[in-house]
# Entry
Amino acid sequence: MAILKIARMGHPVLRGKAADIADPGAPEIRRLIGDMMETLADAGGAGLAAPQVHQPLRVVIFHIPPEGPPEGPNEEPEEGADEGAEEAQGTTRPPPEPPPGPPQILINPVIEPIAEEMEIGWEGCLSVPGLRGLVPRFTAIRYRGLDGEGAAVERTASGFHARVVQHECDHLDGILYPMRMPDLSLLGFEEELDRYRLAIEDEEPAGEDEAPQTGPETGLETGKIAAKGG
# Structure
C-alpha cells in the first residue's frame, strides 16, 4: 500500500464525473482501496473519494461516526440517535474524531434522500485544505452500492453519517462543498473562524427548524473539521 497525493481544488480530476467500476474485485481496484485507506489514515480525515487521489472512479471510503447504534443493512437508525450528540457539540464546535478501525468502502454508490429537511453544518475537505464553510445537506438518506468484496450494501443514515456520505459522493460528480454553499461569506480559514467563533454564532443563530450546526470533513469531515472528508 502507499500514501497517495491528494488533489486540491482547481485540479481537473476534481471537476469531472467519475466512471463506474465494472469489476470491484479487480487487483487494481483492491490496490486502490488499500492505498486510499492508508492515505486517509495519514491525512486524519473522515472520508476520501477516489477522484481526490487522481483516480476518476466511483469509490469512496468513510468512517461511520460513533454516535448512536451501528446502522446495518436495511436498518433504520433509532429516532434522535444523532440529535443529542449534535446538541452537545454546539453550533461551531468540532464533531467527534473519526472512530478507530478501517473506514467503510462504498463502490458505485447511489444516494436517495428520505427526508425533505435539510440542515446546515460546517464542512471541510482534504482537497480544500485549511478552509471550512457552512453547507446544507439532507438530514436523512438511504444509500446503496457494493462493499470491498463486491457484496451489496444498503443503509440508512442520518446526522453526521448522512453528511459524510453526501460529501464524499459529491466528489464522484465533480462537486466540492463550496459549490453547495448558499452564502460564500461563511467560507473561511479554520484559524480565523475559530478566532471569531462567538461572533459567528451571534450572526448565525440556529432557527427553530434548524438543527445545531455540525460538520464532517474536518479533522469525514466544526472548530476543526473532524471530517476532513474527501
The two ends are 19 Å apart (CA to CA). Strands lie at 47-49, 59-62, 104-113, 118-125, 128-138, 140-146, 152-158, 187-189. The chain has five helices and eight strands.
